[in-house]
Design a protein that fits this description.
With 193 residues, the chain is of the alpha+beta class. It contains 8 helices and 6 strands. Strands 1, 2, 3, 4, 5 and 6 form a 6-stranded mixed sheet that branches.
């Protein structure tokens, strides 16, 4: 167990990546639920597709009481869909509590960037997808809890702004251009609302 002094989600994720010793890291948030066969299904899939950079799954959206509300479909389910998203400079969304990703690749790309929180995950998956295949198994293998006090719920406006910057920077990286800093992107958005 790593005990941290509330450094923020991105820093906590990065500390976990650096402390891990296995080649694959399974992400899981405290208020979500991993279904019993999730990891076995992902390990089996990765054994057949060892060059993947990250692998998510679909999941059930659940409320505070744990009742299933709706199926949440996130992530490309084929290489063709991933390549289409790259061509269109779209972000790669995965259900974070469902993802298994390569530790070495995470370290190589610099991990989760703190200045993207609370959209650090979409930036991270998209950067992995710049050079590696990122897929989702189209089966609900986790339950993702939504409630009023959830971090992403409370930070929705900030999350959307950082996701827009992640998308703009994905296009810039792919065009060989430097990324926008948070300040540069904020100025750009204010000048062209």
């Amino acid at each position: 167990v790593l005990r941290l002094d509330h450094p923020g989600i991105a820093a906590a994720l990065q500390a976990g990546i650096e402390a891990a010793r296995a080649p694959w890291i399974a992400r899981m948030d405290a208020d979500d639920i991993s279904l019993p066969d999730r990891l076995q299904r992902q390990i089996d899939f990765l054994a057949q597709h060892p060059s993947l950079g990250a692998l998510g799954t679909y999941g059930w959206i659940i409320g505070e009481n744990g009742k299933r509300v709706v199926l949440f479909r996130a992530g490309p389910t084929s290489v063709e869909e991933l390549l289409q998203k790259r061509r269109e400079n779209k972000l790669i969304y995965l259900l974070s509590s469902s993802v298994v990703f390569s530790r070495d690749l995470a370290i190589a790309i610099g991990g989760h960037r703190q200045d993207y929180a609370p959209a650090e995950d979409v930036d991270f998956w998209t950067r992995i997808a710049d050079t590696h295949v990122v897929l989702a198994i189209p089966e609900p293998l986790v339950c993702y809890r939504i409630h009023a006090s959830a971090y992403s719920t409370r930070q929705l406006v900030i999350q959307a702004a950082h996701a827009r910057r992640a998308r703009a920077n994905a296009a810039r990286r792919r065009a060989g251009l430097p990324e926008y800093s948070a300040e540069e992107f904020a100025l750009l958005e204010r000048s062209d609302p």
